[in-house]
């Protein structure tokens, strides 16, 4: 049986024996991992299937990490509880010993000697002596109780301040976009309509901004040209320290993606990246049949495709683009510039994304499997292009003759070879 062991799907791409290689820490067998996470007793010599689909493989890895963290936290809390019990027992013993008769008598003798040295008259009877001892004892106890009350009040104030600071630092999840933020009130201001927001106009141009910090950042970069140069990649960046951490030295970053091992500076960016490894697309466009992984990408799709927003103009051919980055890539087609070189084969590319997709060919890792056949691919884009072979959908039509094509690059090749070369030759 060539099906997934957990969900019985046919699109299997992993084996259970690969689970120990993806986990860090103490070495474990795949049978121990399955028993720990799912309670399934997988016998190595069993005739049952040992295959897993990509989703189940990733879910087992993430759940193993979550459960191990929960077990460690529980052990830590139980050790703290035992320590507190031991401290309470020690305090009880100290209070019992405090009222021992021998120690009380010694303290009374010392205090009487001090009072006699200060000029107190000698007492005549034992009753008078006991009354003086009681007064001294209660005065000292009252002083100690006052000092303890003052210390407890100060400790309570400090604990309240710490709890307020810790509550402010706790991250909260935004229900609108799904991001984890520290200050939810400030973040929700971004989801208000443009007419209800307070806008800040740039001093040097007509651009408007929603926050004062974004306007200041725009003024420093665009008008003052304040950037820092990175010697490793020869780029001018706004924040050199964060650029070096994210691009060149990502190992110390705190948040790690379990499936691919990539690390991120914040939890929200890690969670946004994790959507690449899943098939969930909860945000659907109300004007077409497309669906997206995040609300931000959905809004960009509406502005770019349906609203036809194109604010960046090419100075050579007057072509307009939605993003400035798309304009920069387009200008390289006029200058024939290919600045990004592949270190494996020496080929040059116009963008970093095309270079990254090309380098996956040299790695040989193919994590995206087709549901209808046995083929696997390096990127989800290659998988989408392959799915046209099964769906037979032809959405892209030629602007000259109207011939439909399943892929946009096939349509572009047809327009260039069948029509544009004929027009230039004529």
Number of helices: 14
Task: Determine the structural class based on helices, strands and strand pairing.
Answer: mainly alpha
How far is the N terminus from the C terminus? 62 Å
| Strand residue percentage | 5-15%
Question: Helices and strands in order, then pairings?
Answer:
Layout: E1 14-15, H1 19-22, H2 30-37, E2 51-52, H3 54-98, H4 101-117, H5 126-169, E3 172-173, E4 180-181, H6 184-188, E5 200-201, E6 208-209, H7 212-223, E7 228-230, E8 235-237, H8 240-248, E9 255-256, E10 263-264, H9 267-274, E11 283-284, E12 291-292, H10 295-306, E13 312-313, E14 320-321, H11 324-335, E15 340-341, E16 348-349, H12 352-363, E17 368-369, E18 376-377, H13 380-391, E19 396-397, E20 404-405, H14 408-425
Antiparallel strand pairs: 1-2, 3-4, 5-6, 7-8, 9-10, 11-12, 13-14, 15-16, 17-18, 19-20
Helix pairs in contact: 2-3
What does this structure look like?
- With 426 residues, the chain is mainly alpha-helical.
- It has a domain at 14-69.
- Helices cover 51% and strands 10% of the residues.
- The chain has helices spanning 19-22, 30-37, 54-98, 101-117, 126-169, 184-188, 212-223, 240-248, 267-274, 295-306, 324-335, 352-363, 380-391, 408-425, and strands spanning 14-15, 51-52, 172-173, 180-181, 200-201, 208-209, 228-230, 235-237, 255-256, 263-264, 283-284, 291-292, 312-313, 320-321, 340-341, 348-349, 368-369, 376-377, 396-397, 404-405.
- The strands form ten sheets. A two-stranded antiparallel ribbon has the order 1-2.
- Helix 2 (30-37) crosses helix 3 (54-98).
- The longest helix is centred in the first third of the chain and has 45 residues, at 54-98.
- It is extended.
- The chain starts with 13 loop residues before the first strand and ends with a helix.
- The model is unreliable at 114-124 (pLDDT under 50).
């Amino acid at each position: 049986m060539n099906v997934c062991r957990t969900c019985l799907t046919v699109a299997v791409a992993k084996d259970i024996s690969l689970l120990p290689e993806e986990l860090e820490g103490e070495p474990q067998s795949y049978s121990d991992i399955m028993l720990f996470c799912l309670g399934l007793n997988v016998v190595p010599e069993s005739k049952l299937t040992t295959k897993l689909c990509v989703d189940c493989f990733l879910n087992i890895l993430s759940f193993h990490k979550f459960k191990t963290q929960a077990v460690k936290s529980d052990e830590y809390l139980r050790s703290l509880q035992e320590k507190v019990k031991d401290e309470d027992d020690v305090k009880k013993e100290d209070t019992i010993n405090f009222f021992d008769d021998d120690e009380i008598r010694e303290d009374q003798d010392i205090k009487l000697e001090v009072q006699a040295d200060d000029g107190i008259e000698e007492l005549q009877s034992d009753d008078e002596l006991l009354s003086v001892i009681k007064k001294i004892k209660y005065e000292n106890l009252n002083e100690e109780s006052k000092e303890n009350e003052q210390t407890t009040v100060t400790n309570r104030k400090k604990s309240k301040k710490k709890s307020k600071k810790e509550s402010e630092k706790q991250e909260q999840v935004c229900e609108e976009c799904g991001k984890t933020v520290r200050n939810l009130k400030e973040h929700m201001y971004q989801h208000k309509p443009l007419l209800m927001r307070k806008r800040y106009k740039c001093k040097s141009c007509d651009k408007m901004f929603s926050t004062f910090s974004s306007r200041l950042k725009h003024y420093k970069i665009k008008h003052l040209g304040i950037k820092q140069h990175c010697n490793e990649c020869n780029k001018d960046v706004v924040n050199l320290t964060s650029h070096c951490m994210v691009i060149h030295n990502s190992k110390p970053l705190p948040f790690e993606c379990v499936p691919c091992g990539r690390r991120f500076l914040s939890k929200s960016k890690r969670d946004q990246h994790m959507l690449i490894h899943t098939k969930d697309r909860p945000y659907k466009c109300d004007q077409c049949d497309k669906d997206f992984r995040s609300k931000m990408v959905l809004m960009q799709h509406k502005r770019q495709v349906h609203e036809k927003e194109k604010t960046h103009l090419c100075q050579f051919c007057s072509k307009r683009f939605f993003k400035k980055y798309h304009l920069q890539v387009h200008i390289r087609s006029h200058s024939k510039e290919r600045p990004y070189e592949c270190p494996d084969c020496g080929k040059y590319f116009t963008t970093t994304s095309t270079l990254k997709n090309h380098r996956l060919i040299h790695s040989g890792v193919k994590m995206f499997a087709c549901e209808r056949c046995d083929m696997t691919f390096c990127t989800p884009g290659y998988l989408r292009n392959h799915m046209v072979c099964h769906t037979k959908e032809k959405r892209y039509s030629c602007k000259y003759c109207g011939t439909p094509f399943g892929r946009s690059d096939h349509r572009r090749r047809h327009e260039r070879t069948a029509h544009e070369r004929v027009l230039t030759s004529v």
